[in-house]
Amino acid sequence: MDDSDLSSELQDRLADRRTGDARGTLELSDEDGYVGDELTIRGREFPTDETYDLVWQTSDGEWAIIGANRVVGPQYQPRTETITTVRTDERGAFETSWTVPEDYGGTHKITLQDGDSVLARAEFEVRPWFEIDRTEAPMGDAFVVRGYGIGPSVESNNFQIAWDNQFVGFVTGVRNRGTATAQVRAVGPPGKHVIQVWRNYRGVPFVANNTQSPLGSVGGDRANAWTVEVTEPAETPPTAWVDTLFEESPIEAHYPELDADTDAELDVTPQYGQAGTQAIITGRQFPARTEVDLKWYQHVGEGIRGLEVTPTARPGILPAVTTDADGRFQVEFEVPPAEGSTRPILAEVDGQSVAATGFMMQPSIETFEPTSGPVGTEIEIELSGIGWTAYESAPFFVYDNAPLGYACGASEDLRSPTVRTVLQATGEPGYHFIDVYPSLFEMEDDEPEFEIRPHLSYLDNHPVRRLPACHMSFEVTQE
Question: What topology does CATH give the domain 252-361?
Fold first, then answer.
């Protein structure tokens, strides 16, 4: 029998026995606390005038992804971090202070080590807590809610945010060491409103969190609900906008396989952007004075109907070109409204694909009209750049912080590369807001439950890509 067959507690005892004669006691000023707390660490009964490392035992988290498409679920690997180096005094004691870093919630071991030998250990529990950036905002702006010490256990891996007792969406700290940031729209009517954070591994609020949950209250002795005030906007809210876009590169795993292995090279500049971007395709090391067919690819299929999603050439987007005497060419084109994520671009010679590149298609709002009207007005929305992968193919529409439903970013029709819907205008006269958040269409792990829910921490914790959200404002008028 080896250590892998033993319980964690028994392994700790065996490790204790291997540490030799240099044994003592490690004490913490608190057994639990929050990110940002100052912790005093004391040691006693160790050899005098010796130097040791204090080590924080924790994890690194990431989403497990297959084929840059399928989401398995959050996974965590052990990680250690040296807190500081200490030296014992003439009594074999030491004392040091340390600020609890941004890290995952739950129990962490703190060990005193001489190289790889563990001399003593203690445990500290990081408890989750939340804060809000302000308690007053003009209509259309956003309140920023930030959580610390989230996860990684299934029970505390995600938290939910509600506006006026209406579930808005969830946050998780998978990629960001337990820290998550969400923006909650300030929606009307003007006056007092309530933002509250809940917890439940099912991805929707468990409303007995603070009364009957075996996990205790959501934020410990810190606030998890805030009364906020929405004020009249000083200016007309913007009609339609997309979050700040990031620099990105295409994902080569999404390219089709080439028919022939040649020296031909293909690239596109820029590598990312929205519909309407002016881009240049450059080819090198092709046969001289030869016609090259350029192909723009769309991912086509509907997994829900059992149709595999595959890259398929979409005709009429890119031209044929002729190389010069050096086997080079360059052509400018306007990126069309298209499906999101990587748009493969292939070069064909005599019907065989010989080189590939890609353009990372980012979200844009192509149509939002009308922008005002009475209750019942049909609002047409068309979005470009909504991807086909499991982590970006289900944009979730939220109206005045109330989740409505999702659309699909993949289609079996080459003529439908965008997401289109028609919503009904509702609410009292005044401004109302539509937010389209990323969500996960499918996840192979059953728990926690993340599927088809607005992901509010999308900017710092979404799988694979930092996807922007789309935002729109509509003015409901009197009849």
Answer: Immunoglobulin-like (2.60.40)
